[in-house]
Amino acid sequence: MKLNAILVEDEKISRDILSNYLAKYCPNINLIGQAENIQQGLELIQSNQLDVVFLDVEMPYGNAFDLLDKVENKTFETIFVTAYNNYAIDALNAHASYYLMKPIEIEELIKAVDYVSAIKTKENALQEQILVPKINTVQGKITIPLQDGFEVIETKDIMFCKADDNYTEIYLNTNKKKLVSKTLKYFDIALTNSGFARIHKSYLVNVNEITKYVKGKGGSVVLSNGKELSVSASRKADLLAYFK
User: Fold this and answer.
1) Which pLDDT score, from 0 to 100, does residue 224 have?
2) Is the distance from CB of 200 to CB of 235 less than 8 angstroms?
3) Final residue of a domain: which of 124, 158, 189?
4) 111 lies in a domain?
5) Of all helices (H) and strands (E), which one includes residue 37?
6) Can you give the pLDDT at residue 130?
7) Tens of pLDDT along 159-196?
């Protein structure tokens, strides 16, 4: 599975080395940002849904533990990266997933990422067990996971869902968008028999929101808000079956 990650490290050469290692040896890491101090790191954490943070211990104006103290409802795993071994106990107390020593050994880096991947895989499997029964038993509603629990939304309020790698963007008729850490396939299954059609590998649409179909090899549909979405040729027949 893909893991969204950031790197917090004050030394540019260290950031470059680790980011290059991750790109070359850990293809399941999606490095979405880098920070050179605690404030930048906190901003990235607060504005993104993260699976893992690579965190240097000693930085200007504070350290890694000062940063973690500022984070509420921490849902990501932490991999400490440091040239000092005297922080191991503190890292353990901060529930670190792994403690990497500089200079970084590639084998240790891969082991650290594999360890976090295993943790996240188990978490996702557990969340599937928790959420799927709610989807099956609450008519006209669906639960979506949040950092601190889940939110219940009306399926009729969903205009369409868009795939974003291992995430799904849910567009509501209130002009709001929600980013959920579930694949589009998950929602395709969950919304079976709820009036939703998979029109493309990237789109799942509420059929009741479709106002127009435009002919073509696959064609496209126009929704009630004016949004036009492509229909793949392989999905065209299934879509048109809703209107016969």
Assistant:
1) 92
2) yes
3) 124
4) yes
5) none
6) 44
7) 999 998 888 999 999 889 999 888 898 898 888 788 89
Q: What is d(CA 31, CA 88) in angstroms, rounded to the nearest whole number?
A: 25
**Helical ranges in the chain per DSSP H:** 12-25, 38-47, 64-69, 88-93, 106-137, 184-190, 236-241
Assigned domain for 176 exists: yes
* Cis before 103? omega within 30: yes
Domain coverage including residue 150: 138-241
- Residue 34 CA from chain centroid, whole number: 17
Contact 53, 8 (CB under 8 A): yes
Q: What local confidence, expressed as pLDDT, does residue 92 receive?
A: 67
* Count of CB atoms situated within 10 Å of the CB of 109: 21
* Residues of the chain under the 50 pLDDT cut: 130-131, 133-137
- Output Rg (C-alpha) for the chain, integer angstroms: 21
Beta-strand relationship, 52-56 and 77-82? parallel
